[in-house]
Amino acid sequence: MRQTKLALAAVLALSGMSAFAADEPKSDWTITGNAGLYSDYRFRGISQTNKKPAFQGGFDIGHASGFYAGNWNSNVDSVFFGGANIEMDFYGGYKGSLGDLGYDIGGLYYYYPGSDALVGSPKIKNTEIYFGLSYGPISGKLYYPVSDFFSAEKLTTFFGGTAENAAGSYYLDVSGGYDLGGGFGLTGHVGYQKLKGSARLIEIGGTTPVESYVDWKVGVTYTFSNAFVLGLSYIDTNRDFTGGTAALSNRKISSSAAVLSLSKTF
């Protein structure tokens, strides 16, 4: 999450007097916003919009002590989420460092308003706690669900999950970036999703529940006008999953894709 600080400098120059400048006291609080257009919304390698475009945005509030909170939103495939057409994420945590080693501890709640509007559809939600470490341009973060992991019923409906609970599932994210100079940058990511109980998925044409899968991303970014970021990423997984609208034609939503994006932080 990028943070920007607001400061005001006043310079007065009067005839026969010396010029002077005064800085307004800096606040311990920062507020940033973000918005972007994406050709596809991929969550852990799986399309949430039936491979269609997404508009995403949110805001972050941070304190100099390290505490932060925020909200992020995106449109989603309503068939995939029981009638909900928007995902709303709420999160909060604490960031700090021990020498060159950074850490991030917090919680994240995924909310899909209207997901239980369709007859027989459960309310889809998920709450995860996370712990992250970073060193230089490399970071790693572990997400562990403490709720029903996007609802066991939803997974059963769209993916054919078993009747057990999803306790023990987790997601490990390892990401990195490299500044090429001139506004260009390289990004990379590898994720490992462990699935337990009702969170297990069944691949297209398969019969045995899958207990894990891997997703990855390689991308290039170009920053211009100080705040706009143009991105192009290659995203893929090692499994063949379908769901939501795509399930009507048994089409994959976890296959390789090039995702184009234009975003801005303000």
Summary, kept brief:
The protein has one helix at residues 152-159; strands at 9-12, 20-23, 29-38, 42-43, 46-47, 54-63, 67-75, 86-98, 101-111, 125-135, 138-145, 170-181, 184-194, 212-224, 228-237, 257-265.
The unreliable regions are 1-21, 152-163
Named CATH architecture: Beta Barrel
Number of strands: 16
**Separation of termini?**
11 Å
Mean pLDDT: 87
Find the CATH superfamily: monomeric porin ompg
Strand adjacency order, main sheet:
3-6-7-8-9-10-11-12-13-14-15-16
- Overall SS class: mainly beta
What top-tier CATH class fits best?
Answer: Mainly Beta
Helix content: under 10%
Sheet bearing the most strands, described? 12 strands, antiparallel, barrel
Structure write-up:
- This protein is 3% helix and 52% strand.
- A hairpin with a 2-residue loop joins strand 4 and strand 5.
- With 266 residues, the protein is mainly β.
- It starts with 8 loop residues before the first strand and ends with a strand.
Secondary-structure blueprint:
Blueprint: E1 9-12, E2 20-23, E3 29-38, E4 42-43, E5 46-47, E6 54-63, E7 67-75, E8 86-98, E9 101-111, E10 125-135, E11 138-145, H1 152-159, E12 170-181, E13 184-194, E14 212-224, E15 228-237, E16 257-265
Antiparallel strand pairs: 1-2, 3-6, 3-16, 4-5, 6-7, 7-8, 8-9, 9-10, 10-11, 11-12, 12-13, 13-14, 14-15, 15-16
